[in-house]
Design a protein that fits this description.
Blueprint (H helix, E strand, L loop, with lengths): L6 E11 L2 E8 L4 H9 L6 H12 E4 L7 H5 L3 H16 L2 E7 L6 E7 H4 L11 E7 L2 E7 L4 H9 L5 H11 L1 E6 L14 H12 L5 E6 L6 E6 L1 H9 L3 H15 L3 H5 L3 H19 L1
Antiparallel strand pairs: 1-2, 2-3, 4-5, 6-7, 7-8, 9-10
Helix pairs in contact: 2-4, 2-6, 6-7, 7-8, 10-12
Bound molecules: zinc ion.
């Protein structure tokens, strides 16, 4: 039966605790019991909440923490969470991510195989938690003191139900600003912040945490048109796992019925292991029928 072995992984930016940064984490694959918990949690979740839940279940250690609380998972940057989700997908279902894309020009469908490892970026050389940038707006210059967006920011903004991705990005950028000061060093109230702040800050955030937004560049084999697509790991992975409550329990039942394993033992299997055994049962049953 499967044993919980955890694998060391590296965070591109890192987890901060007591003003010290840690990049090491340990994860284990998602198992049946995690799938059951996700299925039974009921209420529709935002992608940010879903990400927090799966990561919290499968991260065994984060820097010096060997027991990882949910707040620590929320406090990770968006890019670190994306990296951990890619690792979790790779550990649970393998490295290959088959994708179907439609060409925006000729509308032909094409199949693409992405690799989770190749989507993971190298650790970022950044070693500070707070950042500063200068904005020049109508001949006045400002200094903006800010941090990178985290899962907690994504959850808070999603809970407020932003109308579209752009509004959400604006709300997230505003949450990340600690203070804005003018050339004299006077702190400005939010209503006096320069008009270009959100736009310029969003660009900075993309540069500082590039793992946060995965862009796939592709070329259509039919019409040669080049195009880019955003790849949302949470949307992709949750679709692979989700919405299969009836099928999930049928699979558990099949394994219990033929192997006489306990529910606890079956829940320890990963999805590919469960499917492998069910395939073998089906093969044996069809041989017997011959
Ligand atoms: Zn095309």
């Amino acid at each position: 039966m499967a044993v919980d072995r955890s694998t060391p992984v590296t965070l591109p930016l890192g987890f901060w605790r007591d003003e010290k940064r840690y990049r090491d984490a340990r994860m284990r694959p998602l198992r049946g019991r995690d799938e059951a918990a996700l299925l039974e949690s009921g209420a529709p979740r935002t992608r940010a909440e879903w990400t927090t839940t799966v990561l919290h279940r499968c991260i065994d250690a984060l820097g010096p923490m060997s027991s990882v609380d949910v707040e620590a998972v929320r406090s990770l940057t968006v890019g670190d969470r994306e990296a951990l989700l890619l690792h979790l997908r790779r550990l649970t279902l393998g490295d290959t991510l088959p994708c179907a894309l439609t060409c925006p020009s000729c509308e032909e469908k094409m199949d693409l195989e992405l690799s989770a490892r190749e989507l993971l970026l190298d650790p970022h050389p950044l070693d500070q938690r707070w950042h500063e940038m200068r904005i020049d707006d109508e001949e006045v210059s400002y200094r903006v003191h800010f941090r990178l967006p985290t899962g907690a920011d994504q959850e808070a903004v999603a809970a407020r139900g932003a109308r579209d991705a752009e509004t959400a990005a604006q709300q997230i950028a505003r949450r990340c600003v600690d203070r804005v000061v003018d050339a004299e060093g006077t702190e400005l109230p939010e209503e006096a912040w320069p008009g270009s702040l959100v736009e310029e800050l969003s660009e900075q955030l993309e540069t500082l945490d590039p793992q946060a937004e995965l862009i796939i560049n592709s070329k259509c084999p039919f019409c040669n048109h080049g195009f880019s697509r955003l790849f949302d790991v949470a949307a992709y992975f949750s679709k692979e796992l989700g919405g299969r409550e009836e099928r999930f329990y049928r699979e558990v039942h099949t394994l219990a019925f033929y192997y006489h394993w306990s529910e606890q033992e079956i829940m320890r299997l990963t999805l590919p292991q469960r499917h492998r055994y069910i395939e073998l049962i089906n093969e044996t049953l069809s041989e017997d029928r011959r």
